Amino acid sequence: MSGGWLITGAGGMLGQDLLARLAADGDPATGLDRAALDITDPGAVRAALETHAPAVVVNCAAWTAVDDAETKEDEALAVNGRGPLVLAEACAAAGAVLIQISTDYVFAGDAAAPYAEGAPLDPRSAYGRTKAVGESAVLTTLPDTGYVVRTAWLYGAGGGNFVHTMIRLEGVKETLDVVNDQRGQPTWTADLAGQLAKLGRAALAGTAPAGVYHGTNAGDTTWFDLTREIFRLLGADATRVRPTTSEAFVRPAPRPAYSVLGHDRWRAAGIEPLRSWHDALADAFPALLDAKRETTHHGG
């Protein structure tokens, strides 16, 4: 075994940041995007593990079109449920650690206090149901070397996301109506990438118990208050952001009203939980603005 890392779904925001983090840390890593590896194909997955002989596999590949999943649940299940099972079986055969990225959508989203890692699952959307199947596949197949890291409200420089959209809309809209009845934890993909790197190393060292961890920045906020903070960082008038309710933006898949996740299990692994979302956003902002300028320059 080479002792390196294999990242699936490496073309996405998190995959890009994880590869960058590992490179900066001097850890050998290979990234395979969707075109390079279909995680639902057992033969292709086995071949990839034989070729690269990783010690740690991080599955960032996922069907993330939440609304489309409502009418295409079988297709979403293939990627979010079967894919992790195929990876877990291949990792079991190869003796590799698997870290599966999951979501707050596996919960009902109606709690009044942060969801603990062991809280009962109760997904209310097709996307959430398919991700819950993927979690179970990993934890059942790899009881000693399988890890699930749930995250939420991701943003980063390497892809489309809510923060990018609000930065763009500030320049073209006089006012913005943003929902103020959904509460969660904006999470910078660069911060989560660093946490995944620590978890993988701890898993190899035998200091991180297998199981579920919550990878979100600390604290919580609403989409409305997040947008006001984005405007403040832009030097724009935050009063241009107006609160509204989820009923004003009805979508096929229900959104969790409360997506705040608890972080207690990190300390069992000797790893500090992620810092506050507020501090992370401030640090992320220069890169987000650079990415916006790059997109604008190329006519995106």
From TrEMBL:
One of its GO terms (biological process) is dTDP-rhamnose biosynthetic process. It is an enzyme of class 1 (oxidoreductase). Pfam families: RmlD_sub_bind. CDD domains: dTDP_HR_like_SDR_e. The keyword Repeat does not apply. Pathway: Carbohydrate biosynthesis; dTDP-L-rhamnose biosynthesis. The keyword Cytoplasm does not apply. Its EC number is 1.1.1.133. Residues 6-285 form the RmlD-like substrate binding domain. Keywords: NADP, Oxidoreductase. GO terms for molecular function: dTDP-4-dehydrorhamnose reductase activity. One of its GO terms (cellular component) is cytosol. Catalyzes the reduction of dTDP-6-deoxy-L-lyxo-4-hexulose to yield dTDP-L-rhamnose. Belongs to the dTDP-4-dehydrorhamnose reductase family. This is dTDP-4-dehydrorhamnose reductase. The lineage of its organism: Bacteria, Bacillati, Actinomycetota, Actinomycetes, Kitasatosporales.
